[in-house]
UniProtKB/TrEMBL annotation:
<dbReference type="InterPro" id="IPR051553">
    <property type="entry name" value="Ran_GTPase-activating"/>
</dbReference>
<dbReference type="InterPro" id="IPR009091">
    <property type="entry name" value="RCC1/BLIP-II"/>
</dbReference>
<dbReference type="GO" id="GO:0005737">
    <property type="term" value="C:cytoplasm"/>
</dbReference>
<dbReference type="InterPro" id="IPR000408">
    <property type="entry name" value="Reg_chr_condens"/>
</dbReference>
<dbReference type="GO" id="GO:0005085">
    <property type="term" value="F:guanyl-nucleotide exchange factor activity"/>
</dbReference>
<dbReference type="Pfam" id="PF13540">
    <property type="entry name" value="RCC1_2"/>
</dbReference>
<protein>
    <recommendedName>
        <fullName>BNR repeat domain protein</fullName>
    </recommendedName>
</protein>
Length: 428
């Protein structure tokens, strides 16, 4: 049965017809509350030392990390796919392939999507992975798909159906968006691509409408880089749990007199685990508490209502949150999509849009409150989400997905259909 907010997502048929739009006539006049507030519950999550559970491979088909892919530009919604770092340090991808994000070579150019995971061509000895870029044990950075991969004289985005090595110093981490890339190297954090939000250099040294070669960010001294997360803002997460941000405001997640802000500064959260960002929306966990923030709702009285990290009220401490792109057109307005989170005990909760069953609770009703994903055979290590599909990496190294399969993003070997509860990905 649809609840009061379920009109935002259709109580649709079981046919998986691709990314769905919501009937504008069914939309409410306004949405005053942030949908992230729907991560309801019983009590405020206590401040705890929460970290993801480890992966212990139970078979030769085993993954140790899970990421999403993106298309030629994230607003096109053609990036619904996933990649996994396998135990043998190769990478396997499945789902959409419109922009070459499966990495299967030119012979697969006509394949728009694949429900059968396969290894990315020529990629091995991988130690770090972000979207369709990887770092190998020698420190080389490799990328495939469509993005700012330093393959043109103008440094603009290019499409690569086979991984190419980027002309960068030895790196330990890489982070990419459809228009900006960053790498943690011995020379510091280098970033390149489109400087529209000042993620490459301040505007007094580089105009906004500039595509740039790699440049070193001016960062204060600190602990080594644990993660680089790049969207409309760039997050540099350090091993001590601190994080620096620069770029669009929001989602830089801190008070600034500049918008965008091209100068890196510290976010006011301690003990940050990892950041998930999609264009102008970001989430993280710190001390077992989940936080989300991003662009304000159109027409909001308080234009900064979502600008800064806001703690979620949850029944259990969290170790990770995944988010999709913040907004979608709806009756002339824009509203948040959805989120999934992993609890300290390894359960997965989702809330928000659910028209394809992507909340994983066996229904297609809009998840006003956080709902528990049912049917996962083991505890979860991490969760990742696209607009219409969710996937979780489990402690035994298996991956389970649920929701839409229009582009093969369930990875179950079937071309179409959808899954209201998790199904196992057929890893190579």
């Amino acid at each position: 049965m649809c609840g009061a907010l379920d009109v935002l997502a259709s109580c649709s048929s079981s046919d998986d017809t691709g990314p769905s739009s919501v009937d504008a006539a069914a939309a409410p006049d306004a949405m005053s509350a942030d949908a992230t507030d729907a991560a309801v519950s019983l009590r405020d999550a206590a401040l705890v030392d929460a970290s993801p559970l480890p992966v212990v491979c139970a078979s030769s088909s085993c993954a140790t990390a899970l990421v999403t892919t993106f298309g030629d530009y994230i607003v096109n919604d053609d990036g619904q796919g996933f990649c996994a770092l396998l135990h043998d340090r190769t990478v396997a991808c499945w789902g959409a392939n419109v922009s070459g994000q499966l990495g299967r070579g030119e012979e697969a150019a006509a394949v728009e999507g694949s429900s059968t995971p396969a290894r990315v061509a020529g990629l091995e000895r991988v130690v770090a992975l972000d979207h369709s870029c990887a770092v190998d044990e020698d420190g080389a950075t490799w990328c495939w798909g469509t993005g700012p991969f330093l393959q043109s004289a103008t440094n603009r985005t290019t499409t690569l159906r086979t991984p190419v090595k980027l002309a960068l110093p030895s790196a330990t981490r890489v982070g990419v968006s459809p228009t900006v890339g960053c790498a943690a190297t011995g020379e510091g954090v280098l970033c390149w691509g489109y400087n529209f939000y000042g993620q490459i250099a301040p505007f007094d040294t580089m105009p906004r409408d500039t595509w740039s070669a790699p440049r070193k960010l001016d960062l204060p001294a600190g602990a080594p880089v644990r993660q680089l997360a790049v969207g409309d803002a760039t997050f540099i997460v350090r091993e001590d749990g601190s994080a620096l941000t620069l770029g669009a405001s929001p989602p830089i997640g801190r008070i600034s007199s500049m918008s965008p802000d091209p100068y890196a500064a510290v976010v006011g959260l301690d003990g940050i685990s990892a950041v998930d960002i999609a264009t102008d929306n970001a989430c993280t966990t710190a001390g077992g508490i989940g936080y989300c923030w991003g662009a304000a709702m159109p027409g909001a009285v308080d234009t900064l209502s979502r600008a800064y990290p806001k703690g979620l009220v949850t029944s259990d401490p969290l170790v990770g949150i995944a988010t999709t792109r913040t907004v979608t057109s709806l009756a002339g307005s824009q509203i948040p999509y959805r989120w999934c989170a992993v609890t300290v005990s390894g359960d997965v909760d989702c809330w928000g849009f659910n028209e394809s069953g992507q909340a994983g609770n066996g229904s297609k009703d809009f998840a006003t409150d956080a709902v528990r994903v049912v049917g996962l055979p083991e505890r979860a290590v991490s969760v990742k989400v696209t607009r219409s599909t969710s996937c979780a990496l489990l402690t035994n190294g298996k991956i389970y997905c649920w929701g839409s399969n229009f582009d093969g993003q369930l990875g179950n070997g079937n071309n179409k259909g959808l899954a209201l509860i998790p199904e196992e990905v057929v890893l190579p």
